[in-house]
Amino acid sequence: MVGGSSTKRSGGRKRRRRRRRERPNSMDHLTDDILVEILSRVPYKSLLRCSCVSSRWRDLIAHPDNRRKLPQRAQTLAGFFYYSSTRCFVNVSETGAPLVDTSLAFLPDRERPGLFVLDSCNGLLLCHCFRFADPNVFDYLVINPATENWVAVPVSRRWSHKVQTARLGFEPAVSLHFHVFEFQLDWVGDGTDYTHKDGHVLGVEIYSSENRVWIHKQCGWSIDVILADDLKSVFVNGILYVVATEFIIGAVDVEGKTWRIIEFPCSEDCSFLDTAPGYIDLSHGKLHFATVDDITGDKLAIWVLEDGNSKEWTLKHTVSFMHLVGRQYVDFGYYEYIVVAVHPDRNMAFFIFDKTLMSYDMDSGKLRVIENLGQDCDDHYMSYVPLFSETCVGGQQ
């Protein structure tokens, strides 16, 4: 009896396991469109794991028609590129060393000397590289450090002092192609004498990696705009936003057809300090603006543009400089306090004080000292979020 009972139990377990194996997988009944819609809502790292579930899932995730719908990057700010005698990188991810070669050693030897990082946008770097044979000749390079791929961009024309500002536009969730914006400025002279010109924007050359041509458009802003060259630009929904010195933000689209002016935010309770610059960034998919608030300069204010088609700002957060660094803004001035980023996915701001990079969590009020960058560091910091997916930057051109 004992042996018979054991045999029956064993047979019952085998039948139950067989029924479970034969039970149809409910995911198999989903159409490709529904499955892609589900996968579009998972984080990037989870999407990578999903590609190992089956050949069907792998093929759907890899299909070019689905790339725009699926997550294209890890949702973590890795750190900042900056210059201090040489090109440097500071890690802010709190997860160890960055997963990319920030020295860009994968570039051919001929590309590395004289390479300067101009801008970064959603995982890509825009660089220029002067040629030793002729210091007036340079190339643009667009580089993906995460995949170690890069592409040379033909320059719009021979180097000119009128070309002072170039910016990169790239939205992997919308298109796998990037745009380079090269602003033409009203400069004359040899680089040392600009007595009769103020450097306002005359027009823009725009390069599209899709058709690989430059287009020229005359400036369409209603006033003369002088760009704040060292401050970050933002690219979202096909529009590039740049900070100008006239307490305004200029916007231009990838076709050079739409030109807009957005004034710095101001309200009855808060006003920006006339001597303070404004800083823009993209956080939670919306344009954010940070500046010194109150005419006495006692706090940092962060605003958000809830509707990209509007010019109405909403005050998101304020914090006193006494809370941040124990001193008033007016005590140490513009060059010792620089906002460098608003986190793309968190309510967090990054700033430099006394050459030290810090972060401020708006939700918890916690301040974190990250790293002293040294006395030789400059004032141009480029935030970097790794992009591990395939883009049009597929190798040297």
TrEMBL record:
Pfam families attached to this UniProt entry: b-prop_At3g26010-like (PF24750), F-box (PF00646)
Location of the region described as Disordered in the Swiss-Prot/TrEMBL record: 1-26
Source species, domain of life: Eukaryota
Family matches, as InterPro entries: At3g26010-like (IPR055290), Beta-prop_At3g26010-like (IPR056592), F-box-assoc_interact_dom (IPR017451), F-box-like_dom_sf (IPR036047), F-box_dom (IPR001810)
Compositional bias ranges of the Basic residues kind: 10-22
Domain F-box: 24-70
Entry protein name: F-box domain-containing protein
Annotated source species: Eragrostis curvula (weeping love grass)
